[in-house]
């Protein structure tokens, strides 16, 4: 896979997403599987090859600040690294940050970059195709993945039984990580450098304590099968 730049949530939201990523379905997976490695929740900004690595101080725009992003749909993929992810809305702020960094990488370091399905939030890496599908099913059935109000966006929560928790409809990008992903083993991936984005009048936390009213069961199943918010690989 080479090297990558990751957009990482601010710490509180990163911890909340990490707890969601600790979810394991009720069925038994194969012994010795490489599925479900532990990694930080992230949006891959770009991927590239060496041999020289960029300095984040050179490629991050000087006016870059924390950037809010919103969830759109859940996607069950057809390969290990794309097993289950959340599609992110293409806001102007996010796309401008992407374009600025890509332009700097190419101009300063002559690095040829790749952006695979940008932007999406990686949550689970799963080897077995049938298990990816069952994982998606159980995330929905247990209420950890929900459709947003008025059929818009997506909501995630690590504990649907705790009504004091407001499901997340997105998060704030607070850090950029330079990652060494050259190993085939996810657990061996290494953070080479971190860049903390300054706050710019951060909006109220997207992970609060106000519960949302549960949707009606009729509307829930109509959303599930009629609105296309849950997609499998093309």
From TrEMBL:
<dbReference type="Pfam" id="PF07823">
    <property type="entry name" value="CPDase"/>
</dbReference>
<dbReference type="InterPro" id="IPR012386">
    <property type="entry name" value="Cyclic-nucl_3Pdiesterase"/>
</dbReference>
<dbReference type="GO" id="GO:0004113">
    <property type="term" value="F:2',3'-cyclic-nucleotide 3'-phosphodiesterase activity"/>
</dbReference>
<dbReference type="InterPro" id="IPR009097">
    <property type="entry name" value="Cyclic_Pdiesterase"/>
</dbReference>
<protein>
    <recommendedName>
        <fullName>2',3'-cyclic-nucleotide 3'-phosphodiesterase</fullName>
    </recommendedName>
</protein>
<dbReference type="GO" id="GO:0009187">
    <property type="term" value="P:cyclic nucleotide metabolic process"/>
</dbReference>
